[in-house]
Amino acid sequence: MLRYRFSFFTKKFTYETNGRGNYVIMSPAFSKEYAISDESGAIVVRFEQVNSWFSSGAFLLNNECEYLDTYELVAVIMGMHAIQKRHRSAANSASN
What we know:
alpha+beta, 6-stranded antiparallel sheet, 1 helix, 6 strands
């Protein structure tokens, strides 16, 4: 389960797996670089958004975690990207 966590000056998500631990996805507020850390706080995955301004979301993924499959991480990143787009859309419609 992927969830957005409200925090100031960072983008923060939690990813809960069934029996394989919980992970935290964090990024500074205006950064396109993300880090996923396990329950011990060790960074096990890094990824970066590399798309240009008007293109669809593209990410570079560096997976060093034995418990998270790369295909699973792609789904998590896609979900995280969709949540961020939904939040931006809601913020834009609220300001209009």
